[in-house]
Amino acid sequence: MRLFFAITLSSIARNSLSEYTPKVKDRLDRQGLRWTTPEKWHVTVLFVGDEDADAVKTLATDALAGQKEVRIKIGKINGLPDTKRPGVLYLGVEALKGDLNAIHKSLASVFPLDDEEYLPHITLARMKPASTKLGHKLRDFMHSGAVPEDIQWNAESVTLYNTTLDGSYELIAEFPLDR
To answer: Phi-psi bin for 66: left (phi > 0), alpha (psi -120 to 50), beta?
Structure first.
């Protein structure tokens, strides 16, 4: 199993983002760029990897106890590992109320996998290898001022998913957050 924790978008946020992404595609689409579909949009909280799902659920229940719901706002588009030669296009997200980092840290204390700084985001597209041409387009787009409308939602739970062999996501468990 390839397990990861995520926060799903509300249906309203997903629909609003669906209205924004054609603008992004019109400006940034190029050969080799693979766009994510709306049903795969999520805010990754922590990648767990190949672990026993029942054990992960038990540990996560304790780790997430007392964590509060989060009001999330979608931010600006950006690139990873940077904007010069991005291999990933993403939208940043920020917590307006609550603390995404606290949720991440509570899970990372139980499932310590890496020391990378947590960057909450929604992946829009991937490209291998990373592209300097895409980087030029991305920087131009970023400077154009085209940002998503004010897209916000309350994250009331954290979801544990498994990535299946066909690339789809299988819901394993949901962990409600306190109000």
So the answer is: left
Closest CA to 94 of 78, 109, 114, 116: 78
Residue 23 burial (CB < 10 Å; 0-12/13-18/19+)? middle
* pTM score: 0.92
Q: What is the CATH number of domain 3-176?
A: 3.90.1140.10
Please name every residue paired with 171 in a beta bridge, in sequence order, or none if there are none: 161
Tens of each residue's pLDDT in the chain, 179 residues = 799 999 999 999 999 999 999 989 998 988 889 999 999 999 999 999 999 999 999 999 999 999 999 999 999 999 999 999 999 999 999 999 999 999 999 999 999 876 678 999 999 999 988 889 999 999 998 888 777 889 999 999 999 999 999 999 999 999 999 99
Assess contact for 137 and 28: CB atoms under 8 A.
Answer: yes
Q: Where are the domains of the chain?
A: 3-176
- Cα separation, 69 vs 88, in Å, equals 28
